[in-house]
Design goal:
Organism: Actinoplanes xinjiangensis
CATH architecture of the largest domain: Orthogonal Bundle
Structural class: alpha+beta
Number of helices: 5
Largest sheet: 3 strands, antiparallel
Keywords: Cytoplasm, DNA-binding, Iron, Metal-binding, Repressor, Transcription, Transcription regulation, Zinc
Oligomer: single chain
CATH topology of the largest domain: Arc Repressor Mutant, subunit A
Distance between the termini: 57 Å
Shape: flat
Strand content: 5-15%
CATH class of the largest domain: Mainly Alpha
Bound molecules: zinc ion
Radius of gyration: 18 Å
Low-confidence stretches: none
Cofactor: Zn(2+)
Order of helices and strands: HHEHHEEEEEH
GO molecular function: DNA-binding transcription factor activity; transcription cis-regulatory region binding; zinc ion binding
GO cellular component, one term: cytoplasm
Length: 144
């Protein structure tokens, strides 16, 4: 039986390996996790996998476009399987929680530059910053 992950790996000429499949499964269930969290998730399935192996897998998957790497300012790099749809992220300033926000217009670049300086612009990197619902409620409890 060929899984969807195997098909995707073969489509970009990557060999199908257990660590690669495990990383893809981990990111499917847990979007926007950092390298350490990915390592923990993969180790629950493959206890002997090394940090370097997971790091290499993440790099190979990111380089081939199977995984998207995002890095909000001041945060560690996070990874996710949702690629090629130009979705954006909303990031909590207090706890760093991240959620997906669909592109406002549906395709990149979703913002028109007021002056493109002659550049051919293909993307606008949009990050929404704010406070997540759980941090908002923690804060209001503290005020009572
Ligand atoms: Zn928060
Ligand atoms: Zn996302």
């Amino acid at each position: 039986m060929t899984s969807d992950f195997e098909t995707r790996l073969r489509a970009v000429s990557l060999r199908v390996t257990k660590p690669r499949l495990a990383v893809m499964a981990a990111l499917t269930d847990h979007p926007h996790v950092d390298t350490d969290r990915v390592l923990g998730l993969v180790r629950s399935e493959l206890p002997t996998v090394s940090h370097q192996a997971v790091y290499d897998v993440l790099r190979a998957l990111t380089d081939t476009g199977l995984v998207r790497r995002i890095q909000p300012a001041g945060a560690t790099a996070r990874y996710e399987m949702r690629v090629r749809d130009n979705h954006h992220h909303v990031v909590c300033r207090s706890c760093g929680a991240i959620a997906d926000v669909d592109c406002a217009t549906g395709n990149a670049p979703c913002l028109t530059a007021s002056d493109d300086h002659g550049f051919v612009i293909d993307e606008a990197e949009v990050v929404y910053w704010g406070t997540c619902p759980s941090c908002v409620s923690t804060r209001s409890e503290g005020n009572q």
